[in-house]
Each structure stands twice: as C-alpha cells, then as structure tokens.
Protein 1
Amino acid sequence: MTFAVHGLPVARGIAIGRAVLVVSSRIDVAHYFIKPEEIETEIDRVRTARNAVAEELAKLQTNVAQMGPNDAPHELAALLEVHQMLLQDEALSGGVKHWISERLYNAEWALTTQLEVIARQFDEMEDEYLRERKADLEQVVERLLHRMKGTAAVLAPSPPRRKRASSDEDDDLTAGDGIDVPLVLIAHDLSPADMLQFKKSVFAGFVTDVGGRTSHTAIVARSMDVPAVVGARTASQLVRQDDWVIIDGDAGVMIIDPSPIILAEYGFKQRQGDLERGRLARLRHKPAVTLDGQRVELLANIEMPEDTVGAMKAGAVGVGLFRSEFLFMGRESSARQTRLPDEEEQYQAYKRAVEGMQGMPVTIRTIDVGADKPLDNKSANKQEHLNPALGLRAIRWSLADPAMFLTQLRAILRAAAHGEIHLLIPMLAHASEIRQTLALLALARTELDNRGAVHGQVKLGAMIEIPAAALTLRTFLKHFDFLSIGTNDLIQYTLAIDRADESVAHLYDPAHPAVLKLVADTIAECRRQGKAVAVCGEMAGDVAFTRLLLGLGLRSFSMHPSRILAVKQEVLRADTSKLETWARSVVDSDDPGAMLAG
C-alpha cells in the first residue's frame, strides 16, 4: 500500500531507490546496582570503551583527511572532531564516575543517566545549530554502549540490489533483478561516522526521523547536494528493508511502496531535474544581469575557509557571510580549559578564505554564540536562562568578553592585508552597542600598530535581524558602510516564533506582511542613503522570493552555493522596471503569500 511520510526538506531534488535501513540507533541497557568492590571495574569498562571509540574515530578522521574535497566535505571532518571533543569531555566522564561511585549504578546505567543530564543543558541552548548538537552527544554515548556490548555501531548490511529497468521498461522502474538500482538510506539519525559510510556507499538520498534544518545531517546533505528529508519522525519504523522509496527533497516528503504510476511520475520529475541542473550549470560564467540591465551580486554563505572551493565552482562573486563561529566550536580540552583559536590560527583561517576567493570580497561575521552555551564552559553554564533566544548572544556575548573579541578583530584586520574583507556585526540593537563595537575596533587597530603588525582596511557592516534595528536604520547608517538582512532571525523575532519548537513551527512565515515590510523598508532606506544592502538568510536562496526582492530594489543576495545558479536563472529572466509596482503591492497586501504563489 502506498503512503507518504512528511518531514523537513533540507536538500532539494528527487531520489528513487530501494530502502537501506540503519540498525536501530537505540540500545536497551541494563539497570542494576553494583557492589562497592566493583566500582573500579565498572569505571574501567567505560574507560576501555572510550579509548576504543576514540581510536575508531581517529581512524575515520585519518581516512577523511586522505580523501579529496569532492569525496569528503569538510563538514564531515569538523563533525568527527566534535565527536572526539564530546567523547573526551570531563562533563561526560566525570558525571559517569559520579553515578558509579556515589550511586553504585552499573556502567551503562551511569552513562545513560549522565547523557540525560547533559542533554537537558543542550535543550536550553538558544542557538538552533548548537542545540541540535545534543544528537551528536547521543551518538557518542550510543557508540560507547555498543562497545561495552562488544558490537560496533554500523550500518545494516545492504539489501539485495535490484536491476534497473531496461529502456523498454521505463514505465515500471521496479522490473527485473540485478545490481544497478539506486539505494536510499533511512535512519533514526545519522552520525558523522555514518555519513562517511553513506558517502562511500553512494546512496542517492536519505531520510531521518530526527533533525532540523541546521542539524549535521542537513548540513552534510546540502554540501553533497543529494535529496534529503529530516524530522520525518517515525520514518525508520514505517519503512521495511528493501522497500521502494521516493524522496522528494523539494516538498519534504517520502513516499513508501509507490505504485507504478507514481514511480513513473517521479521518474519523469527526476529526469527533468537532471536536465535542469545541466542547464543551470551553463549559467556559471554568465554575469547576473537582469533584462533591463541591472547587475546583481550573487554571493556565497560559508562556514569554513575550505567552502570557498564550492563557492567558486558555483560562480559566486564573493562571500556574503562567513560564519566565523564554526572556527570556535568543539574547542574545549578534557581538562575543561579554554582552547579557543588564538589570533594566529584565526588569521590563517581568514587569510585562506580571502585567498580562496581569488580577489573577490569576503564578508566575515563576528562570532555568533550565546551565554547559555559559553565556549569556555565557565559558571555561566550553570545559570538558568528563562528565555535563551533573547539572552546574551552574538555581539552581546562578544562585548561581554572584550579580550576574546579583540583577538578576533585583530585577526580579521590582519587578514584584510591580503584582500578585500567586509566585517559584519550580528544582532545589534542599541546605539551603545554600536559605540562599544567601534571603540573596540579602533583599539584593535591601535594594538596592531603598536606591534608593527601589517593590517588592512575593512568595510564595516551590521546585520539587521532584530525588529528594533530595522526600525532605527538611520542610526545604523550613520556608522556602517553596509547592512545585511538576516531574515532567519528577523522572522523569528518579528513573529515571536521559536523555529526549533515543532508546535509553532508552522507559524514561521517569511511572507508575513510585517516581515516583508521590515525587509522592504530596510532596502529602501539603504538605497536612499546610497549604502549597500544584502540579504543573507534563507530567503536569499529561495527562488520564490527572488523577483520580490529584486522589485524591492535588492541587488545583493547571499546564499548557500548550491542555490546560486537557480537564483541566477531568476535574475536573468527578471525585468526590475516591471517588478517594482508589483513588489510594492505584495508588501502592502494582507496576504502576500497568496500573491507570491499566484
């Protein structure tokens, strides 16, 4: 019987194939009290398992390091490093020792108990990406439990593979036997180690029960450019090994046991998608100019310097958002001492990004983390944050730690000697924050001058992601060379919607009249004052909004590299002189979504 499961679309396209199920990712553990004389034995069991998993991850890291960028995206290496850091974290090992020594829990019971304690701390974090790192912790604990049971956490054996239909059997893709039918991966969740096997196995797509748009599975899927759906809840329980499955990465739908008619329909869509990608690839070197001669900047969002390779391949004319916080993640040693990247390490990373873009501008956003997730794990970690989404994060966090902020500013200024860098400050709302930021930037320059260190000039920009900032643009434009609209947070704060809360996620609406008015007014004010403005949130890469943003006067879009060519196609087809009146009517409408859909 044909049925569908809905989730979150995170990587576009259509995948059709036989299902490969990952072995259940949850292990039942025994719960019993040990004798006092068994305490050291139980602690040693955990230690032995930890060492074995550390060795296993180290081998995977070595394998990834030996693979080319096309075989193993850098996100995979970074996520393996996160798993190593979590494995060695004193919060995990120390807590397990506590439960064994003080409560006389057996090793498995102690491990799962400490997992629950730390998982609750992750749940309270304000940042969606870091909050979803709880899944990484769960996978690390799961690997430890597997080791203590004497089994490895690996993918299930591949099912018997079927022959793809011959050319006369195109209407029945399930016909025949053989070895050429694509496989799709279905799992409760996928760890970075699983993703390495996924890459080697050349699966055509995947679906997971859990995860969000910023989960590691989504990040790796976008970098691999394969269809994927996450957050499909019970998908792994509903699919049987070797079922025929369709993954619609555009709609966020998985279809199980499709009928021949549905298979034929999606097979046609898949072929059309392949043809469309081929057509789009021909646009790579074509300038992004509208029919009426308006030149448009299509920039890339990146997380690490190595992402510049993909940006260049997609035809980006610069980096519009370098999320520098990725350089800071997973940096704590087992002794709980701060191990943040120093000035030299950051300088080298920013320099590599500048060199990777071969003379094109690179916009570096200063670190965006928050008080409920302190990178140095100090006592702030123990504070209660009743509303972490509104807490000490982004520039507020940086201003609260001037030494860290000055280190980053000096590194960016030094890298600016090697090419054009734009410095972007996140989550500003107050004039006092602007003044503090400018003062620290001036101090960073003075410190470099006093050292005789070579540094360059940067253009200074502010992110508009808080409604208060969007409503006080004139104050911002007195101090900044450009603005960048972060639509993801702007939508969340304008509509009071927590994107990570499934119960209200349906209310997260980029086409809400209030959101569009703030975006439109920001673009208009920048144009009036002759200041540059860009959009760097998900809206920039969504072709449903390209014509609207062009009609509102936007000429700079920054997005994931995989979206650049599709947006460029919309730009080439647009006539902005004919879009202006329509765009204003959309913004003024009571139901902009309906007008955009029409």
Note: Residues 151-171, 175-179, 332-338, 376-384 have pLDDT under 50 and may be disordered.
Protein 2
Amino acid sequence: MMKKQILMMSAIALSLVLAGCGSDSDDVTQPEPPTPPTAPEVIKPDYVFGGPTEQLDGTIQIAIVKSLVPVEGDAKGETAHAKAADSGPQATKVIPVDGLVETKMAQQAADMGMKIEYLLPPTAINMSGIKIDTLRPDLFPEGRGSVLDLLMWVSDKYGIDVQIEKDEALKTYFVTSIGGIEGAPERVDQSRLGATEGQGWKYLVGPSTWEAKVGDGDFNGDHLYYKEEEMYFRIDHMALKNQMSIVLMPAQPGEMEVRKRKYQKELDRLAANGGKVIVPEIVIDFKPPYYDMNGELVQPGQRAVFKDIEVKPHNLRLDLYQPGTITELDAWLSLVEQRPDLKINWSYWPRLSTNANVQGYVATSISFNGKDDLGNIINQTYKNNGECGFVHHTGEWENYADGGRQHGLYEFVMCKGRMDMPSDWNRDACVSSVPGIKGFRPRNYGAGELYENDGPTGYMSFGLPFGANDPHLTGDNMIIYGPEYINYLGVAFGALNTNNGVPSGCDVDSPEIDIANLKDIAQARAPLDESHFGWKLPDCTTCHNPSNSHVVEAMAPYECAECHGNNGAPNNHGERYTCGFCHSQTLAKHGNVYANKTDYYSKDSKFKEPESCLTCHVDAQK
C-alpha cells in the first residue's frame, strides 16, 4: 500500500571506454548510430471520417464523496443550480465550461433522502499547463493520463491522503483509502451486512455536460449539468478528456467484487486465447421483434451475431493511448475487415449542437447483407440522422442488468419512437405492455434464455439508467482485454432531440433527401476562383445585395452556387442528414445558420439543410 507508485524509467548513458587491455591497437570500433524509432502504423480505412484535434487543456470537474447521510424532513427540494433564472435565448453556442457545472448527484441523493458530505467538493480543474505523470506509461503517452492520475495530482495539490494498491493479476490499480476512509460497509448483501473486508473506492464519470430543460421551455445551452455514471472500467484505464466530471465514492465490498470478477473473466479469456484479444460475441440489433395486433410473432428481431472476433489495434487514438492499445472501436473495425458483407461508417464527433462534447468516433451507418454466425440471413441497413442512430453496451452479459433499468431504456429507444416497422406492428408488445409478451430484450435475456430473470445488483444509485455496461462513452474511449460481448443497437429517438417531425426510421425504407432541392454546380457558367476577393467566404450576402449586384432579395447563398460554383468550399464526407448536429459549434461566416436550435434543419436561415450543405459541399466520390 502506498500513497503513490510511479514507475519512472531513467535513460542511463553508458560510455564504453576501450583501454589497451593487452592490445597495442589504437583502433576503436565506433558504435553504429541508433535506428530511429518506427512510427506506429495507423490503420484508418476510408469509411472512418475525421479525427481528434483537441488537446487536454480544458476543464475537468472532480469531487471526492466522504459519505451519504440521511436528511431529516423534506430532502427533495431543488438544488441551488435548479433554481436558476428562466432560460435565455435558444441560440446554439459554445459554452465555455470554465467554472463549476451542476452535478445531478446532489438532487439524486436528495431524492433518496440523503445528503452528500464531501472530502473534496466539486472542483473545476483547468488542465491547461498541468503536467500529468501517468502511473500507466504503457497505456498513455506523455501529457495524457487516466482518472487515477488526476486523483493523484489532486492528492498532492490539496493535501488529501490517497492510498492505492497495484493488482498485477488484474492489470490495474485500486484506490484503497482516501483521507483515511477505506470504503463503505456492506449494506446490500444481507448475508454479511456491515462487513468491511474487501471494501474500497469506486468512481463515477460524467463524460460530458447535458443541457437542462428549464421550466416548460426547450433544452437550453445556458443551463448545463453533469450526470455522473458508475464505471466498471479500470480506473487507471479511463482516459482524461476535456469537460468531464469525475466523482470518487466509498464502495461496499460487494461493489468491488463485481468489478474484480469482471476483470478476472476478461483476463482469463485473454489467457485462454494465448494473449490474443478475441471477443466471443459482437451483436447488432437492427430491429425489434415484429408482433402483430393479435400478439402473434410474425418475425423475430433482426439481430446479427458474430462469433469469436480476433481484434487487431488500429491506433486511431494515438492522442489518448500508446500504440498497440486495443479499444472497443478496434473490435468493430476488425469485424468489418473480416466480414466483407458488413459495412459500417464512422465519423468523429466533436462538440455537438446539444453542447455534448463527445470527442470520439460514432457509427453513422451500418449495413449487413448476409448470413451471421448463427445462420440468420439478414439484409438490413440503418443510419444515424440525429433522430435515430446507434447506441451500444459492452462487458459481461451477467452485468447487463446491474442498474435495473436497462430493459425499460432499450424498450423505449428500440420501440417508442420507431417509424420503420409494418403498419400492423404491435408497439405495445415491444414495450412489455401486452400480457404474456416480453418487450424488447437483448441477447441472452429473452424468454427461456440464460439471464431471463436476472436483475439489478442493488449497488447502483446514481446516473441511472446509464453506467456499468452502459456508459456514455464512444468505443474508442474504452480499452478492452476481450469482453464477453459488444452490442450495437439501431435506435429511434423520435422527436426527443428535434421538433421537425422528420420520421425517425432510418433504414432503407425511410425517406431520403429530395435531390431535386440540390443545385447542380458541375456545370456552373461562371465559377469563381482564387482571384475572387470573397474566395472561400460562404455567405455571399456579406458583400452582395440587390443594390450592388444581380442578387435578388430572396436568394440564399447556395442558390448563387448554381452559376458561380461553390467558391472553394471543401468536399463533404458522405453524410446526408443533420450536418448541424456536428458542425453547428464550429461553423463561421455562414450567416444565421443554426442560430435557433429548435430549427433543427436551419429551415429559417439562408443555409437550409441539407440542400445548402450538399450543394456547395459536394460528394468527393462523384
């Protein structure tokens, strides 16, 4: 046990002095110059777009919880943050997360009749200029590190005693004591109530801020909060990112056992596979089961299962990890390489129009036309357009339902907003509202399956329904040793994110964009070039108006492109929907585009989506 264990490697220069030693020769063999290190191979296929540009120079919020104590009387009052003034303008804008951001933990604790006592209250750390000395130089490059590394920095900065222990067998460190507190006594396992042996510390992460819904208004970027989720990933493997929140909490013995059992299973699997990372199952749920209005099963869910995928590193996140580090994204990329009948596209998502700072690769379309490894013949395509897309969970199947709310969560996103099922599809059956019919269930949790009746552990209280196997992390932010499964699901959020009424079904039957609205600039009669004084300036109306040119009042800039070309606009990257979802925070000189976030497709601006975007930003493949 120690306060810190930092493995430092010193480069020691050894001077080899060749004296006579029985030889009269003055010849000295000069050592050959060292071979320069070989740059790691980065395997980035053409179906992966974009990449990280961020440095670790933003704000990270961290807190250390001492305990939860009962509160007498009404403990469910609003927090100070919740009493903020009514929302301001609905404009989408970058929120500089410089100071403290509300954490929902305070309200969640109050809802349980508890109050949080802190060893370190929520504290905003500006990472600019902070040097992180990582305990895991095998995983993280210089300047990067893990949640544990930041905790150790905080222990020095604020004089908080932090004890950690390295578990060689489980390839990780555990926090064993903070401020003299070694964990929490057992409160869940009735057979050993009050036991302390095996207790420790766990951590929760809010990977990004959320926008709050203020009053009866819309989600508002002026009111942000963190919703921290319980993490099962190793604390010294969880990479630090800008605008994340970290909370340390005392853990009961049973909570630590859940994590250690998970880690041991992964490493047992790794050893059984001779050190190769092989994922036993990768699952893609395209559609839920099709029950008709009489409750009869017409067609099982459209689920593809792929077995025993050997994973190779692709090194797409060298900004975060050392070369050769394997992530969940590597598993998907390896699967696509092994299955030519499976097509998946990914895009790197920065800060979105919702102010979520994703900082990771997200699947934007999945298409499979073939036979999976269970013999199922599937021909399905699903796309991400903002109102529908992909979610995922990963880990050990036995941990899927640990939080207790996963079935309700996935019934909702797989069934409630779906628009791509037959007209007589029984939506109620999909959400467990028809007696005798289970709603949507993941593999191994259906009727008669291994974990059909598996339920929550009782340990998780914060961040639900997310956490455990189900955190808000992209796959390139998850280091893996061979989890039992990985599961993508094609889900429909309906009008949760927008109010435009666009159907949420995103498969091949859903409506595509009307290409008649695009302007064909291939035959532009007077295309502009670099000599144009407004070259690469997107908004023609910055300089041109009806009084000084042939522009008419009603013309939008993309309509000018029909005759004058795209004025140097870069090519697009193959997406067809919701450009503003990713680009609204970084667009400049595009007039009032995305000024009103409820105008999801910017129909009220002169840069209508997608016709404006796809007219000027042409498809490079054409």
Note: The mean pLDDT is 84.
Protein 3
Amino acid sequence: MPFRCLYGADLQAIDSLLSESQAVQYDQKELAIAYIKKARELAEGVEDPKLMARINNQEGTVYYISGDYELALRRFLEAFDYAVQGDFISQKEYAMNGRALVLMVEREFELAKGLFEECIGINTIHGDSVRLARNHFNLGILHNELFELEKAMSHLDIALEFLVNFPKQGLNSMVNNRMAQVYFEMGEFDNALSKYRLVLEDSSSLTNWEKTFALTGLAQLKLETGDLDEALVLGKEALSTAEFHGANWDLQKITELLSAIYKAKGKFDKAYEFLELSQIYTDSLYNEEKSRQIARLHLKLSQAENEKLKAESEIDQAVLKQRNRLLVFLSLLILFLGFTVYFFRKTIRLKEKFNKSLEKKNRAIEKQKNYIGQQNKNLSEINLAKTKLLSIISHDLRSPINSIKQLLEMKGKGYFNEDDENEAYGLLTLQVENTEIMLNELLQWANSQLDGLEPNPSDVDLAEVVSEVLIGYSFQIKTKSLNAEHNGNKRIFIRIDRVQLKIILQNLIGNAIKFTPEHGIIKVYYVLEESYVICHIEDSGVGVDEHYNNLINSRSYTRMPSKVGTANEKGTGLGILLVKQFLDLNGGMLKMESKTEAGSHFILYFKR
C-alpha cells in the first residue's frame, strides 16, 4: 500500500480526536474508543511513527482504564515499537509506563518497578513534572499492592509535590484517592475520610473513575466503622457510577464490597447475588486465556529484546574484528615508515639545518614587516586624527567667521548709522576677541590630540562655559532679537574635557540660534542628580520631524543631513555627530525631544 502525505487539516482533526478521547477516557469507554478508531481511519496509510505511537498509546490507556489488559498491552507494545523507530522519547516513556501498569496487574512487581524507575530517569532529564508525578503515583500503587505502606505514602507525597503548580490536573484526584486507601490500610480512618471527601469536592477535575474509587473507599470505611446503612448508600452510588463508565476493575471491587455489606446486614440472598456478579467481573479480568496471551506478549517482547541484544553483540564483534585488522595494518604501516625515516634521516637533517637558517631570516623579515606595518598604522591613525581635528576646528570657526563677515558686509553696504556703527564695532571687536580665544583653545587642544582623540577630563564649571558660549554668540542673538535665558551665577562642576565640552555647547546652542526665528526664546537650565548634572537647552524654533529626531536619538554615529536656518544660515551636518562622539568619550549622553514647529529640547547628561 503506497504511503500518503498527511495534510494540516487531517493532522488537526487527529489531534482533536485524540484530545476528545482523552477527555472521556475515564467516563465513557465506548466513545473514547470510537474517537481513536476515527483517528486511525484518518491516519491510514501515513508513514508517521510518532503519530502512530500517540494513537496506540491513547488506545492502550483506554483499554487499561476499562480493565482490558491484554488489548492494553498490545497497544502499548505497538506504540513502543513506533516510538523506537524515530527515537521519540516522550512516546517511548509513555508506552513503557503503560506496560509497567499491566505488569502490576499480573503482579510482576519487580519488572514493573524497573520500568517505572527507568521512566523517572527519562522524565527527570526532560524536566516533565506532570509525568514525574504520574511515575511516582504508579510506584505508590505498586508499594501499596505489596503492603509497603510507608514507601507507598512516600511516593504519593512526592507525586503531590510535582503537581503543586498543576492544581487542575486530574492526577491530583488519583493521588488523593490512593493516599486515602493507604491511610485506611494504616488504620488512620480520619485521614482517609478527609482525602476521599477532598476528591469528591473537587468538581473541576473529578471523573467518574475517580468518583467511583472515592465512593467505594467511603463505603468500605463506613463498613469498617459499622455504619452499614451509609455504607450501602455509598456502595450503590459507586456501582451506578461504575456501570456508567464500564470499568470492569471498579465493578469487580464495588460488587465484592456490596456483597460484604449485605452479608453484614444479614441479607444473605443479596450478598450472594453480588458475590456472583463480583466473580463474573473477576473472571473477565483474570481468566487463564488472557493471562496466557499477556504472558505470550511478554515472551515475544523479551525475545525481541534478546534478538536486539544479539544483533548489537554481532555488530560489536564485527567492529572489534575490523579494529583488529586496522591495528595490524597500522603496525605494518608504522614499521614501513620507520624504515623510511631511517634511510632518509641524513637528508632530513640537512633540510632541517637549511630550514632553520631560512626560518631565522624569515623571522627577521617578518619582524621588520610588522614594525613597518605598525608604523604605517600609527601614521594612518595620526592622519585620521589630524583630518578630524581640522574638521572640528573649521566647523567651530565657521559660525564666528560668518558673523564677522556678516558685520563687515553690513558696514560695507551702509546699513549702519553712526550709533549703530559704534555698536557694530563693539560687537565686531568682541567677536574677533572670542574667535581668537576659541582658535587658541582649539589649536592648543588639537596639539594635545595629535596621537588620537582622547579626552583630558578635569573639574569644569558648566555654567561658566555656557556663559562663555552665549557671549560668543552675542552678535547672532542680537541680530535675531532672541531672548537667551540662563542663570550663570551658580557654580556647577562636572568632570569632562573642557575643550570638548565647549565644542558640544557651541554646536547645540548654535543650532538653537540657527533654527529659532526672530524674537524667539532660548533657555539653558540645570537639574542636579546624585551621579549626573543634566543640562537642558530649549528653543522655540522650528523643531524637527520624527525621522530627524530618531536619527539624533539613535546610538549610531551618523552624519546628519544639513538644514538651512531661519535666516538662511548654512551648516555641514557635522555638529551633532561631534556632540554625540564627545559625550560618549566623556561618559555622558544626549537625548532630544522635538516636534515640527514646536521647538527643540536637548537634554545632556554629564558625570559629576
């Protein structure tokens, strides 16, 4: 039969059918089996070992719950074979756990215990808390069956610990039911009663299977304490629930208990009636033919495992023979190589002598080459630093020189009367003096930076430097009739390279002047924090759009597109780049808040 592909819709339908089967497996066996058969029909002809392992594991679970242990074992063995094909650990562990449950029914406790412990090892590696809880729960049942009550209770406690983060898991009810039974067998009737009631009160995860178990346990407890009427009521309710979901194991247990209750009440005809029913259910669970079939399946599995071990042994033997042949070959090869080395030893010695001489010369050449390369690298870095320094100097001198040029052009065109000319002369003199001071500072700083742009931090009065920069821009501020607000009376010290600080402030205050129209406002103020001094530079200018704002706030050193100022002032786009680089070098940072036609707000963080 050719294999076919499984499409998404079919796979989703199979997943849904398996989930539906799992949801009703404790309550409606026939419906659960019907869902699985439909899933098999959809998966027919599909080569998917993992899917087939899931289907067989779910069918094995339903048969186990309903007491059909021979069919359950068959499905778990088939699931195991499929899981091994693709090394699907989760499905393999599930099938091993199912096989161990059937072994417990057959009272093969040591074999079952070994499988449960192997499952614990697998689930511990994968950190699956729910499956670990299930494994310990099953070990609790095993020790309970052996009447090792302390060990049983220990494993059940561990199971509850693993389920602490999974309160809605139906496994909680199973664990509490089994703990109640162990308490009953220990003679701790109050604890048993508390646990059974806890199960029955948990309506969110209570299945008919667990309800039957709890009601049967309560009936048994009432029988033991002599409350026969209450025991009978509880027993009848348990029987009704068990008949609904059709689990033979539950039916056998409750009919046997009802027989004992009627016997204690002196109603021997009813006691005999339920005893016969109990025997029928017992025969359905443990008849000889089923035991022989299960035994044959276990034998078949053991033979398969032996065949696998035998095949692995034969492979190991073949590998060992191959290794021995390889060792013989390698021995002969080494012997041959030994003779070869002996005959060519003298030639090799001469070559080694020549190679040593050549290597010595090569090292000398390489050393010289590295020295020259380092010198070239140093020269390149110096040239790069010089280029950057020239860019910085030319950029920072551009604005004051333009101001001087603008004053001279206005003078040449006769824009000034005598009073204006005197004032302009004063501004020109101040601008020239400030430009000279700036040039001297830049040249002195540039001389110290020839080997690379490294900050030379010192304690600098931030407010004083801001005042110097504002004085340097006096002409531009006056020309545009701007209102520059700054309180420079308070001394605020920060740790920074003074020249780099001045370049930062000249660029940001220059931009504020450049992009603020006439009669606008520029504010500079400070906020002091424990580790930083925060300098705010706000203007009422044209602002920038979101794209330009994002470029400035990004961590990259991207050269900004140049924009024309409100009085047609031109720029290079280098200023913001220098601001970000110098702030980073001095451990500071820059943020900007701006919207088009709503002004700009630069926030500078300086280390104290």
Note: Residues 356 and 362 are 10 Å apart (CA to CA).
Protein 4
Amino acid sequence: MVVVDAMLGNAAVAIVLALVALVIGRVCRSPSVRHAAWLLVPLKLLTPPLVPVPLPVLPTAWGAPAEAPTIRAVIAAPTHAVAVPAEAADAPGSWERLRPHGTAEWGIAVWVTGALTWFAWQGRRVLRFRRRVLRACAAPPEIAAAAARVATALGIARPPAVKTTTGIGSPMLWGWGRGAVVLFPRELLARLSADARDTLLAHELAHYLRRDHWVRVLEFVASGLYWWHPAVWFARRGTEAAEEECCDAWVVCGLAASPRRYAEALLATVDFEAELRRPCLPPGACAAGHDARLLRRRLAALLHAERPSRLRGGVGVWAVVAAALLARPVLLAARPESPGAVPAPSVATAPGGAPLTPPPAHKKSPAEPRAWAMTAAPGGAVTVLARDSEVLLRFADGSSRVLGPGRPLAVAFAPGGQRLASAGPGPLVRVWDERGNLVATERTTTAARSVAYTPDGAALLVLDAAGEITLRDPRTLAVVAEWYVAGAANSCCVAPDGKTVAVSFGSWLAEDGWVELWSVAERRKVATVRAAAPVGAVRFSRDGRALVVGCWSGRIEWHALPSGTLVAERQLCKDLVANTVFSPDAAALPLEPPPEPPPISDLVPFTGISRER
C-alpha cells in the first residue's frame, strides 16, 4: 500500500496545483507562464514523493487511542532518512482503515484495470499511426528547403524530417527524440500559398524547439496512470492551449511573419479539417489547428502577441516548485487534545540574561539584469534600458523608474527630450513626460511595432503589425493621416528634413529584404532600396543623402540616395540592429563603414613561441 498511498498523495497535491493554474490562467496573459503552471500538474503526478509531510486531516476516531506523551530516544546514524513523528507511525492511514471492508482492494483493481486498458488502447493507436508515418512520402524539395530555412532562423541545428501524407486534418509534429517528424496533409498543400505554408511549418518547428513533443510523452504516461483524475484532463487542455499560443507568438513576433497571412493559413487548415469525415489525430501529436474551439482566442491573441522570452524566476520560486514536486502528503487522523501542558522549548541565553541571536548573514547584492537595447534622450538626461521583463528609465541622479504597466517594444524621444513615445505591448501607443509620467494613451488596429518623431517634433509616426502607418498629434495621439504598406514591416525612421519616412521589410522566413521610402505629405512610395538579407532597421545620414540598412543577420549596408546604389557592406554585430529597431534615437548603426579587415593571406601565420637565448 506504500505505492498507492504515495500516488494518492500526489493526486491530492495535483488538485491544488490545478486550481492554482486555473487562477493563473485567469489573471495572467503570458502563455509561457500559463504553460508552466499547467505543466506542474503531470510533473507532480509522476514525481516520486521523497519528503513525507504529515497532514492530520482525517477524523479523530480513525486514529489510535490517546495515550500519555512519550519521549523516544533517537541515535544519530550516518543515513539520510527523514524523521517522522511518532504519531505518524502509530495512527492508521486511510487505506488501512478501509481494508476490513474490502473497499481498498476493489478500488485498486478498478484503477489497475483502467490503466492497463488505457495503455493497450493508446498503444495500438500509436503503432497504427507509426505504420502510416513509415509509408509517408518525403516532402518536395521546395518544402524541404523552406523547412531548413525556418529551422535556421529558429536556431535548430538538427531539425526533424518533413513528410507529406493523407488522412490527417492539419500539420503536426509527431514522435519522440530523433524519430520526431513533421507531417503535412498532402491535399492542404495545394490550397496554401508559399507564405502561408511557411508559417505553418514555422509553427510546427516552434513546437520542436520548445520540446513540446516530450510534454506529450509526459501527458501520455500521466493520463494512463491517473485516468480517473479530472485534473489530468484539465491540465492537458490547458497545456496544449498555452503551447499553441506560444508557438503563434514565435511565428508572428519571433520570426516577424505577417499576422494576416498566418491567420489565413490557420483558417484554411480548420476549413480543410472540417471537410474530412474522420481526420486522424494520434496520441502524442502537436497539431497546428486540431482544436477549432481555441481558434477564436488564438486569432485574437495574434493581435497582441509579444516577443517570446524565457521564463525567469528567483531561487525562492524554484524552491517552492521543488518542494511541491517532492512533497508526500501523509493523511493521518487528527490527534485528540491532551490535558497535559506541553513544556515550551528552552532558549539559550547569554550570561547577562539576554537571548543569544546569531549574527546577521551578509547578503550579496543581486547582479543587475542585462539590457538587450539602450537609448538616451537628447542631452543624456534620461537613458532607456530594454530588458527581457521590463523597460527602465535611468535618470541623471542615479534613480530609475519602470516604464509601465506592460513592457513597451519600441520607444522614441521627441526633439529636446521632453517627451517619450512608446509602442506596445499589443496595440498600446503611449506618450510619457521626462519623468516617466503617462501623458496620453491610444490604441492601433493591431500590435504597434515602431514609433518615430519628425525632426521638428510636430508629428509622431506609428507603424503597426498590419502595415498601417498613422501620423498622429504628438500631444493627444489623435490620428492626422494614415496609409498602408504591403509586407512584413519591422520599423520606421524619418529623414532629417522630415519629408520622407523609411520603412524596413523582411521576415526571417525570407531570403532578402528591402526598404521603402515614402513621402509623408503625399503618402506615396517614392523609392525602393533592395538588400541582400531581411532588413530590421534603417538610419539616415545627417544630410539625408545616404541610407544605412541593418539586416537581422548583422549585415550592414550603406546605400546612396536617391539612387539606392550600394556603397559598402560589412558584417557587424546583430545587437546594433536590435538596438536600432527598439529606438531610432539609439544611433547604433554606424553612419560610415568601418575599415575592412585584412585578407587572410596578409596575416602572419603563428609558428610557435620564440625564446630569447
């Protein structure tokens, strides 16, 4: 009965974790946090409970008769065993109380029978689908090339194979370890454009990057062992919903794909799946559009998707998680009150009578988090630091203030540095004063991506994820003019004369990028500058006769205007581009190309260490 008691204790704690995950799902918008909260439920169910925690919650009548308190001598031994109070050993557990009635044996029999039935049924489905995977055809060369390009953008060194088959309703990632494979419905390929197909490939590769296929293994085992537990099924649904939103954020924000194209691909997948009579969805599959009930929430989340980031937590958070996973609740009968008084523990005192207190421990000051982007106001009175979890204003006197609520994705200073505009999170566009006090707030149609002031400060330009550029009043954020650009726009920058705005284009899924120059007064495109890689940020020279183009890969190009002729190119640090995307005031992109490094043939080879004699 030791194993049964341990599993029942885990099941009890899993109910508490599921309730906590439900509350987190109501108050937290981050899909990564919701996914981690739901993932604790199956982890707790399968983690061996090593630390017993006595819980006297059963009726007093179930316990042993009250006796006088006894003192047991404990001799220290070189073991790591955990000491259990004496009443924990004397009082019968819940299963021992039910043993005379035969309820425990019947309950265990039903439990084991259900688990064996589950694994036999699901194992048969896995074997049948494995035969389907072995018969699947390799993806055409253009799809394989697109998958390799997306995997490189995501940082996947060894991506899974991509195959096409029939009978499945949506693209999916299936398998475990090196045997994982991305399956694509053969009939669906004919309905999708190349961009829509690439977004679905990116979604499935994001599952592989996040190791969601291993989470399916965890859910498979937990569902079989605890088939009767409602928290298991709630956790499965919550985990899969959070995973889909996390992968959607990777596609839209992490890879800069068009939200409109991605939404159209999801709708086409759901429409295709609805036409199939019985689409096949095997156990352990990570499918892109298998749950149509979540589609509305996912489409709404695309408008407010933020750049995916890793979960961060202090030592205290991880200690609480480890304690919850390793704790083993021991259900005991409540101990009756004893008439005798329990002596209070003695306290060591100094010779003068004062209690001895240990000296305070020296605490190390925590290291300041790293900022991935930084920009300063004209004059340097205020510095903006962009971190993974916050955007911080650092003032000249050393004080600081978090810019929020919500973490902005891009900022821009007004001329003179008296105002600061921010884009994000989501569709929020806000203006702040020099001390970080909110002045005005408005919302764009979709997620705001970039902001830029005109040189005279008379207007503010806002670029959103749908390609809409709005010209706004810098004080009230009222829309003065608007127009649209076509493509995956990333950031914008205004020319020194204030007459032209440069918009950078290029998704991680593409091989090249470009910059479009638009007339602010006439709201029409006047020129296009082509680049050799997807463009993240741009910067004008001081006289407006040159354009510095920063590609996501770290490639920097210098083009002459208005011809767009390539003058020079260098491979520099990617952080320069990310800094300029965050703020056009960062001035991170160099206006002049640095000297070229010497060719390898001119370098003197190293032959050894010379010694003086």
Note: The longest strand covers residues 51-58.
